[in-house]
Specification:
Elements (H helix, E strand, L loop, with lengths): L4 E2 L1 E3 L2 E3 L3 E7 L2 E11 L2 H20 L2 H17 L1 H12 L3 H24 L3 E4 L5 E9 L2 E5 L7 H12 L3 E5 L5 H12 L8 E3 L4 H10 L5 E5 L2 H13 L3 E5 L4 E5 L5 H13 L9 E7 H16 L19 H16 L3 E4 L3 E2 L7 E2 L2 E4 L16 E7 L2 H9 L3 E2 L1 E5 L3 H10 L4 E4 L15 E2 L2 E2 L9 H4 E9 L2
Parallel strand pairs: 1-5, 8-9, 8-11, 9-10, 11-12, 13-14, 13-21, 14-19, 18-19, 21-22
Antiparallel strand pairs: 2-3, 4-5, 6-7, 7-25, 12-24, 15-18, 16-17, 20-23
Bound molecules: adenosine-5'-diphosphate.
The site of adenosine-5'-diphosphate has 16 residues, from α7 and α8.
């Protein structure tokens, strides 16, 4: 379907919004990817109504139809991963291999949940009353509002849409303002997958309008959100007030501990990959390197050398290791955090400055800050850019305490060859995901994803654990009479 304005998809129809918004390439701001519809509140409400109308038939319909639709979507994403990966990189700014990889991951997620459709069973237990049996089944919730961020414009929508549909729910999907291109492409694939009209709806528009309508509307049974802590907390209050189910994935301030006994190459790779790839724009990115005395100087020297060799450039250029920051506002925030850190006493050991490239974009040299302490803002607040700091510690015990000294708890990593310390860390890290000798960012698609403390709220996403959020439990008692 070729479009001059990419429209919203509501009740099986492609509809113009109240307004349109240009989608601009962060690697080259002269490149406009397209004009995308912006819904108003009335259109968001009509999508919710369409989803409600479709729910009774869809939730009662056969599981074969659900399996087939998800499998078809997964197959098409996989077949078109290079083309859609290029769109993703052009729109969001991660490099082309990263973009293609993300689309491939989205494909696998749809295929995983196509399988889950067939595997979702219940339990049968004996009753304490003779002659009675008890069975426990999972049932769909209703209409799920999905509010997504810009940093994984294919994978995050996929890991919300696929389980929502797999377990028999209808969907109103609101992508982030900065990445309507991937959202529209995904919606277009879903529109041809054989779903009845209204089961899946795409509503592009502003968070304060469309997101707010989803949060407030009594017809939306549950809301799954990924984004900032401030918006997440706001959504929590709005959904709690009307007793809607809610799941939030928010920020991180993820530590990577490097102990004296670590393999230096592994530690440096984990640090550079985890903190700076995808321009540091991952909620699982490492942003605090906690390094023991004996390896500290060698680690800093080696990370600096590695950063020196990386190429920051247009996301679609062959050989680019790191693409641009997503937009001007995020770049200004990253630069400001580097300044704040230096003003608070940190040493800027590498990079941090804005860069010019052949094309006008939001380029920034990865930043490494040393001599930082736990109280500094750079070690407490999420930056969400290619900026990481180093804290020097005496030993493992101090490192663990520092790693846990944060309001967040998404991912936590350690590089060590000590089985004792690795085992202790896996047990005591206050995080939803723990990595040993691996980057904090980079997770499998078939196992649970999520965190603790201020990072997350509600049941985990992904893998078969996703059913906790996307279904409700019914306990049925039967007597033969
Ligand atoms: P970021 O600062 O990374 O853009 P946000 O939390 O603002 O993170 O955005 C994440 C998602 O939440 C986006 O889809 C955005 O449009 C949406 N959003 C923003 N404000 C609201 C709101 N008041 N209600 C619901 N959704 C919102």
């Amino acid at each position: 379907m070729s479009e001059s304005v990419f429209r919203n998809y509501i009740g099986g129809k492609w509809l113009a919004g109240e307004d349109t918004q240009a989608n601009v390439n962060p690697s080259d701001t002269r490149d406009v990817i397209g004009e995308y519809a912006q819904a108003g509140q009335a259109q968001a409400e009509s999508a919710i109504a369409a989803a409600r109308a479709a729910f009774p038939a869809w939730s009662a319909g056969g599981i074969q139809a659900r399996h087939d639709a998800l499998d078809r979507i997964g197959n098409e994403l996989h077949a078109r991963r290079e083309e859609l990966g290029a769109l993703l990189s052009r729109e969001e700014g991660k490099t082309l291999p990263e973009g293609i990889g993300e689309v491939g991951r989205a494909a696998m997620i749809f295929k995983f949940f196509a399988g889950e459709v067939l595997r979702t069973g219940g339990e049968v237990l004996p009753s304490v009353r003779p002659g009675v049996s008890v069975d426990i089944v999972r049932q769909p919730l209703g209409v799920i509002g999905l509010i997504a961020p810009w940093n994984f414009p294919m994978a995050i929508p996929a890991w919300k849409i696929a389980p929502a549909l797999a377990y028999g729910n209808c969907v109103v999907f609101k992508p982030a303002e900065l990445v309507p291109g991937c959202a529209w492409a995904l919606a277009e694939i879903i529109s041809r997958a054989g779903l009845p009209a209204g089961v899946f709806n795409l509503v592009m528009g502003r968070g304060s309008v469309v997101g707010e309508a989803i949060a407030q509307h009594p017809g939306v049974t549950a809301v799954s959100f990924t984004g900032s802590v401030a918006t997440g907390r706001h959504l929590l209050a709005a959904t709690a007030a009307r007793q809607a189910k809610v799941q939030l994935e928010m920020g991180g301030k993820n530590p990577l501990i490097v102990l004296d006994d670590a393999d230096l190459d592994i530690a440096v790779n984990c640090a550079v990959q985890g903190a700076y790839f995808s321009t540091g724009q991952r909620c699982t990115a490492s942003s605090r390197f906690i390094v023991t005395d004996g390896i500290h100087d060698r680690f800093v020297t080696a990370v600096r050398a590695k950063l020196q060799g990386l190429r920051v450039d247009h996301a679609l250029k062959a050989g680019a290791d790191i693409g641009p920051v997503v937009d001007a506002k995020q770049l200004a925030q990253n630069l400001e955090y580097v300044d704040i850190a230096v003003r608070e006493g940190a040493t800027l050991a590498f990079g941090g400055q804005a860069l010019e490239r052949e094309t006008p974009g939001f380029y920034q040299m990865p930043a490494l800050l040393t001599d930082t302490t736990p109280g500094m803002r750079i070690n407490r607040e999420e930056v969400f850019g290619p900026v990481a700091s180093v804290m020097r510690v005496r030993d493992y015990d101090e490192a663990l305490a520092m790693a846990n000294d944060t309001e967040f708890g998404l991912a936590s990593g350690i590089c060590t060859t000590s089985l004792k310390h690795a085992t202790h860390f896996r047990q005591h890290a206050e995080a939803g995901m723990v990595m040993v000798n691996l980057p904090t960012a980079g997770v499998d698609y078939h196992v649970p994803f999520g965190g603790r403390k201020a990072s997350s709220y509600g049941p985990r996403e992904q893998g078969s654990y996703a059913r906790e959020f996307y279904t409700t439990v019914k306990t049925a008692y039967t007597s033969a009479g």
